[in-house]
Automatic annotation (TrEMBL):
InterPro entries: ClpP/crotonase-like_dom_sf, Enoyl-CoA_hydra/iso, Enoyl-CoA_hydra_C. Belongs to the enoyl-CoA hydratase/isomerase family. SUPFAM superfamilies: ClpP/crotonase (SSF52096). It comes from Nocardia transvalensis. It comes from the Bacteria. This is Enoyl-CoA hydratase/carnithine racemase. GO terms for molecular function: catalytic activity. Transmembrane segments: none annotated.
Length: 266
């Protein structure tokens, strides 16, 4: 099996064509695959480009190392502000990325190990098939740093599992083990870590050799039925998060996280 590396960017992800399968990997393992603004933009560009590439028949999204994605890289916040990246730009890039996954004309398979936190939850749930290792978990950690969920995460949790679980995850900010997430219908299947890759590969191979147009229309119908509130949620998140990203509570929450201490909110 041959692979070629089409895109390796300073924004810490890679996109590799492996025959008809595009393998997109977040490559920031030292930060547990937290993503900064440039990475969100680059990932969005990659999914949008894949939508126009008829040679791509399926996409696998994962993270390098032991975690899927732990959300926004708070260590990049100060440098991004100095570069003129505004909260509005950040929110637009997050919404664009999630929409590019949901709207991709080919199926997207998420391979989840370790933590899927913050916008990592949105990326995992935006995929059409989400396979997770049995030691992985979902975490809407936003409230812990004075923010609200974004990337449509709360809407996607509510669409799959209902408002009570979405409220518990979003308001309490506690981990949801993959086994519980599967029970509530949030992910496709939970597997022993040793079996995860084989299951992902089998699914990707079957999708990549399936009827492309039929898969596209099936995916579109499923999303239209299940994600009717996604656009409204993204708009509400943008408005709320722009305010919160400029708040004293976020400054305290982000500082506390980087200093590995408990935040003290006003």
């Amino acid at each position: 099996m041959s692979t070629t590396d089409d895109t390796t960017t300073p924004s810490r992800f890679s996109a590799v064509h492996d025959g008809p399968v595009l393998r997109v990997t977040i490559t920031n393992p030292k930060r547990k695959n937290a993503i900064d603004y440039d990475t969100m933009v680059g990932l969005g560009d990659t999914f949008l480009a894949a939508a126009e590439d008829r040679s791509v028949r399926a996409i696998v999204l994962t993270g390098e190392g032991g975690d899927f994605c732990t959300g926004a890289d708070l260590s990049a916040t100060a440098s991004e502000a100095q570069r003129g990246i505004t909260p509005e730009m950040t929110m637009d890039s997050a919404g664009r990325l999630v929409r590019s996954i949901v709207d991709a004309p080919v199926p997207v398979v998420a391979r989840v190990k370790g933590a899927a936190a913050g916008i990592g939850v949105a990326l995992a749930l935006a995929a059409d098939l989400t396979y997770a290792a049995d030691d992985s978990y979902l975490l809407l950690a936003f409230i812990n740093i004075g923010l609200m969920p974004d990337g449509g995460a709360a809407a996607m949790v509510a669409a799959a599992a209902g408002r009570p679980l979405a409220a518990e995850m979003a308001l309490l900010g506690d981990r949801l083990p993959a086994t519980e997430a599967h029970k509530y219908g949030l992910i496709t299947r939970v597997l022993p870590a040793a079996d995860l890759d084989a299951t992902v590969e089998a699914a990707a191979d079957k999708l990549a050799h399936g009827p492309r147009r039929a898969l596209e229309l099936t995916k579109r119908a499923l999303n239209q039925a299940a994600l009717t509130s996604l656009d409204a949620a993204l708009a509400a998140e943008k408005a709320g998060q722009i305010e919160l990203l400029q708040s004293p509570d976020f400054m305290e929450g982000a500082t506390a996280m980087l200093q590995k201490r408990k935040a003290v909110f006003n």
